[in-house]
Specification:
about 60 residues, two-stranded parallel ribbon, 2 strands, elongated
């Protein structure tokens, strides 16, 4: 059940994901279902998780 009216703008949802994460693939179908059911405007924003996390032995 949604309370969205036809005159209101769609809700914007930004989804940050990493291609190396299995959760991006496992959660994809559920996310698409949520977007369809609630008429959400989805913006996919990939990011490189490996670039964000320090590598072992790296200088601080």
């Amino acid at each position: 059940m949604t309370t969205k009216t036809t005159n209101s703008p769609p809700i914007a949802l930004d989804c940050y994901y990493s291609l190396s994460s299995p959760w991006a693939y496992l959660g994809g179908p559920q996310l698409q279902d949520i977007v369809r059911r609630h008429h959400v405007r989805l913006t996919l924003k990939p990011y490189d998780f490996q670039a964000v996390v320090r590598k072992p032995g790296a200088f601080r």
